Amino acid sequence: MIINAFYNCSFLSNSSFFIKEDEEEYNVTHESYNDILNNVEKELYKVNDKYNLSKNTVQNVFEILTQTREIAEKDNRQFIKLKDHTIKALVDFGVKDLPMLERVSHVRENIFTKEEALQMGFSIKNKHFHGLGLELYLQIMSSIDNPVAIYQYTDKGLYTDNNFIVVSPIKINGFNTIVPIEINQKGQFNCVEIQYNKIKTAYYKNNNCYIENLLNEGKIKEIFTGSTYQQTSLTENNIS
C-alpha cells in the first residue's frame, strides 16, 4: 500500500494532495498548487514596489518540495536563485550586488521536519532539518531585505570574514530567525559559471545569549543594526 507522504505534512498544511494507487509518484492538484502560489505571492512579492524574491522562487521551491528522493536524484539543479540582488545593507557595506542562491538540499532541510524528509525517502543522517514550513521559509527569505541586524565574522571565529549573520525580523517562539550568508562564491547555475552570494540556511536559536556570546568572544562584529551602520567606511576594504 502506497502512503501519501504529504497527508500529514505540516509544510503545506492547507493544501490537498493525492497519489495514484498504481504508481509510486507523488502529485499535487492543480487547484491547490495555484492556491498556495497565489496566497504566497500576494503576501510576499512586493516591498516598496520592488520584487525582493526572484520571479520564480515560489514555483522552484515548491517543485523541490514535491520531489521524492528518486526524482530529486535525477534533477541536476544544485542551487536555486532566491533573489536577483544582494540585500542593500550588505551592498552598502561593500559586498558585491550579486544574485543570492541557496543549495537545493539546504532548502529541503530548512523547510522539512525529519519526519517529512523520511516520508519523502531522504536520508536524515548528519543533516539538520529545521521544519520551518514553506510559507515561513519564504517569509524569512523575503524579510532579510529589512534586517534587524547584521554581523560579520572575524578571524577569531570558525569562518572567514566573507561570512555574515543576518538577523531577520521574523520571529519563532519569540526568537528572531537567523540567515547565515557567505559572499563572493563561484559555481555553475543553469549550466553557466556565475558569481553569487550564498544563503547557507535559515533557523532560529532558542537562546537569547547566542549573538551576545559570539560578540563577547570576538568571533563576530556588528556592522548594521536597524538603519544604522557600525562603521563609517563602507567600502570593499570591509571584506576580503
Structural account:
The longest helix is centred in the first third of the chain and has 15 residues, at 30-44. This protein has one domain (10-238). The chain is built from 8 helices and 13 strands. The termini are far apart. It has helices at residues 30-44, 57-65, 69-74, 88-93, 104-111, 114-119, 134-143, 210-216, and strands at 17-19, 26-28, 46-47, 50-51, 79-83, 100-103, 149-153, 163-172, 175-189, 192-199, 203-204, 220-225, 228-229. Helices cover 28% and strands 28% of the residues. Strands 5, 6, 7, 8, 9, 10, 11, 12 and 13 form a 9-stranded mixed beta sheet that branches. The chain has a two-stranded antiparallel ribbon with strand order 1-2. It has a two-stranded antiparallel sheet with strand order 3-4. The model is unreliable at 1-9, 13-31, 44-51 and 231-237 (pLDDT under 50). A hairpin with a 2-residue loop joins strand 3 and strand 4. By secondary structure, it is an alpha+beta fold.
Quick structural gist:
The protein is an alpha+beta fold and 240 residues long. It is built from eight helices and 13 strands.
How is the secondary structure organized here?
Elements: E1 17-19, E2 26-28, H1 30-44, E3 46-47, E4 50-51, H2 57-65, H3 69-74, E5 79-83, H4 88-93, E6 100-103, H5 104-111, H6 114-119, H7 134-143, E7 149-153, E8 163-172, E9 175-189, E10 192-199, E11 203-204, H8 210-216, E12 220-225, E13 228-229
Parallel strand pairs: 6-10
Antiparallel strand pairs: 1-2, 3-4, 5-6, 7-8, 7-12, 8-9, 9-10, 9-11, 12-13
